Amino acid sequence: MVTVRNVTRRFDSGAGQVFALRGVSFEVRRGELTALKGRSGSGKTTLLNLVGGLDRPTSGEIELDGTGLTRLDEEGRLALRRERIGFVFQSFGLIPILSAAENVGVPMRLRRVPVREREERARTLLALVGLADHAQQRPGELSGGQQQRVAIARALANEPSLIIADEPTGQLDSETGRSVMELLRAVVRSEGVTALVATHDPALMELADRVVELADGRIVEAAPGASAPGAA
Hints:
Blueprint: E1 2-13, E2 16-28, E3 33-37, H1 44-51, E4 59-64, E5 67-68, H2 74-84, E6 85-89, H3 100-110, H4 115-128, H5 144-155, E7 162-166, H6 174-191, E8 194-198, H7 202-205, E9 210-215, E10 218-224
Parallel strand pairs: 3-8, 3-9, 6-7, 7-8
Antiparallel strand pairs: 1-2, 1-4, 4-5, 9-10
Helix pairs in contact: 3-4, 3-5, 4-5, 5-6
């Protein structure tokens, strides 16, 4: 599903050049939940931004389901993000004045999905994440775990092939965080999507099919997660 080949990302600063990624190569298999771990500053968010088409590498190649991201212009990357990638953020990223159902419907509005179809899809997705009874509540009326569930439903709105999540449990307590991660894993199975999740929580890595570790902008280890067949 995702192929990263010898990717480097360099930033220019007043003190010279800073390398966030140095020759990173790895793959994410279709239908797999891959956890990306590493200390703060290891390059996790930079790598997610590159895979998600939010940034361009200084060198190297990235492919998503056969499409070369590095060969797309800004308009092409925008279309790719809108149609094939769902994002889940640590800070939830919900619009405060909209209800849960309306937040889930935002990506479909951007694609001009008809109102009736949009509303039905939003209801279905909120039911999938266990929030069917909270569709009309606004983010401020929901707990942190519930808000992140809405964010996961929103990420699925346009039936993406890939979900990218950057520290999705970072603002949640450990029990709520684990339940959100379990939900994400269940969604990967039931919806047939692929997920790349950055996390620093060892308990959450146990739920992944595979764990890729970054340190100082380099891959230092790629291993099966505890939930992968034969991992034990």
